[in-house]
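Exercise 7.
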Amino acid sequence: MTRIQQVHWELNMDYLGHPYYVSGNAIYHALGMQLEHDVHQHINASHGMFVPGQFGTFPEEHSQSGIRPYMGSALPDVESYTDLFLFRHPDHPWLLDSRPRDALNAHDIRIQSGMPALAHETIMGRPDDHRKQQQTTRWYVTAYLHADDPDLLPLGEDVLDGLQFGGKRNYGFGEVSLKDTQVRYFPTGVSSGAKASL
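Solution. The predicted structure, written as tokens, is:
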């Protein structure tokens, strides 16, 4: 059996780094600040995908169905291997059509110290006839951890919380807090064929 730990972080501060994802290397090195060397060298991390905390609906291929409020803000249950990939698409196909899809598929950029940074929240105005004049969407980072020695997983919440990704970390940029994590087991033959996709 292959053990995979899903991790879902909430962005607390703007992120200076790759505009489409947090690299697995960045996640790996952030974990290295929290782990002992002999444990750290056996951990592997996927790219971390940016996910908006918005209303969404499960796609047909998912084991669950229906609409969920603020779907991107937490990890849904995983019952099959394909369920793992819900948040892995940068165009967020799970977003409801009634949500501002075009705006959320282009992550908001703010200039920080002369450099472009991905905003940790997106604030959009709303029409005058709406109850609230603006809507704020929080952003999350979802990734997978895998270990050469499966007994090393799951990593504890104290290790996964308060990490920093990207540039200018000494100034607080790229700070995340742990929002959700879960461990799933899959037959080795299934996951090894798709390991590169994780």
